């Protein structure tokens, strides 16, 4: 079945850029999402990209999509301690009815 | 809207007891999802509903788990009997029109089974 994979941990220094990577298997993905989970809270949508786009920028966030390699990345510029959280990659497609598949989440540690 | 509401926020119970988790989705959302999150297994989709009808329950781990959605504004996830390995954070989420739309998550219920 469809799968979404991402590395489990990333550690960066405050002020540096963070890049979180994700790969997925479903070639018919329609939307690709990044969700953020802060400690003790549920997931919250951070940003998303349509599958016909290569890049999306939103303030400090840049999403890059390589559809050929089924690779998605999230870049956070000028990472702050408040960015410490778990970041989930997710993809949805209309294969057999719309469904969203989440990755395992990447835990981002930001060192002051 | 207050967002997705879950209760209780924390539940501590003893092995063998019945546990019921509750969820109120965002009004007007057609889809409701139940997830379980653990350090070992990450985020797992247990079941989801469309217009109160269960669509996919393939993620429900065992017959001890059951979920209902008697109306558009309420859903329950029941574990009977509970076991220590059921300890996890359980999330409810809802989405507007399709299962591929943005999902709005509740704050979760942290379940500890002793």
Largest interface: A-B, 22 and 18 residues
Instruction: Give the N-terminus to C-terminus distance of chain B in angstroms.
Output: 36 Å
> Count the strands of chain A?
11
Helix-strand makeup class of chain A:
mainly beta
Tally of helical segments of chain A = 0
- Main sheet record of chain A: 6 strands, mixed
The chain-level mean pLDDT of chain B equals 94
Catalogue the unreliable spans of chain A.
none
Q: Radius of gyration of chain A over alpha carbons?
A: 14 Å
Structural class of chain B: mainly beta
Proportion of residues in helical segments of chain A = under 10%
Based on Cα principal axes, name the global outline of chain B: globular
Annotation keywords:
heterodimer; A: about 110 residues; mainly beta; six-stranded mixed β-sheet; five-stranded antiparallel β-sheet; 11 strands; about 0% helix; about 60% strand; globular; B: about 110 residues; seven-stranded mixed β-sheet; four-stranded antiparallel β-sheet
Description:
The complex is a heterodimer of chains A (112) and B (114). Chain A is mostly beta strands. Chain A contains no helices and eleven strands. In chain A, strands 2, 4, 5, 9, 10 and 11 form a six-stranded mixed β-sheet that branches. Chain A has a five-stranded antiparallel β-sheet with strand order 1-3-8-7-6, with no helix packed on it. In chain A, β7 (61-66) and β8 form a beta hairpin. The radius of gyration of chain A is 14 Å and the shape is globular. The mean pLDDT of chain A is 92. Chain B contains no helices and eleven strands. In chain B, strands 2, 4, 5, 6, 9, 10 and 11 form a seven-stranded mixed β-sheet that branches. A four-stranded antiparallel β-sheet of chain B has the order 1-3-8-7, with no helix packed on it. Chain B is globular and about 40 Å long. The termini of chain B are far apart.
Fold blueprint:
The complex is a heterodimer of chains A (112) and B (114).
Chain A: E1 4-6, E2 9-13, E3 18-24, E4 29-37, E5 43-50, E6 55-58, E7 61-66, E8 71-76, E9 85-93, E10 99-102, E11 106-111
Parallel strand pairs in A: 2-11
Antiparallel strand pairs in A: 1-3, 3-8, 4-5, 4-9, 6-7, 7-8, 9-10, 9-11
Chain B: E1 5-7, E2 10-13, E3 19-24, E4 31-38, E5 42-50, E6 53-56, E7 65-71, E8 74-79, E9 88-95, E10 104-105, E11 109-113
Parallel strand pairs in B: 2-11
Antiparallel strand pairs in B: 1-3, 3-8, 4-5, 4-9, 5-6, 7-8, 9-10, 9-11
């Amino acid at each position: 079945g469809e799968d979404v994979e991402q590395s489990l941990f990333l550690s960066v220094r405050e002020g540096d850029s963070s890049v979180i990577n994700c790969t997925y298997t479903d070639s018919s993905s329609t939307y690709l999402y990044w969700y953020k989970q802060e400690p003790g809270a549920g997931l919250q949508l951070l940003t998303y990209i349509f599958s016909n786009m290569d890049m999306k920028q939103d303030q400090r966030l840049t999403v890059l999509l390589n559809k050929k390699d089924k690779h998605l990345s999230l870049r956070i510029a000028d990472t702050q301690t408040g960015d410490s959280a778990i970041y989930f990659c997710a993809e949805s497609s209309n294969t057999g009815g719309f469904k969203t598949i989440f990755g395992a989440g990447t835990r981002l540690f930001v060192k002051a | 809207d207050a967002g997705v509401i879950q209760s209780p926020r924390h539940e501590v119970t003893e092995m063998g007891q019945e546990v019921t988790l509750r969820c109120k989705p965002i009004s007007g959302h057609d889809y409701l999802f139940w997830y379980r999150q653990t350090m070992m297994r990450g985020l797992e989709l247990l079941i989801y509903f469309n217009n109160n009808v269960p669509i996919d329950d393939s993620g429900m781990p065992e017959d001890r788990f059951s979920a209902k959605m008697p109306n558009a504004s309420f859903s329950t996830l029941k574990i009977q009997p509970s076991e220590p390995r059921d300890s996890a954070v359980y999330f409810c989420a809802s989405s507007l029109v399709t299962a591929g739309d943005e999902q709005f998550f509740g704050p979760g219920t942290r379940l500890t089974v002793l």
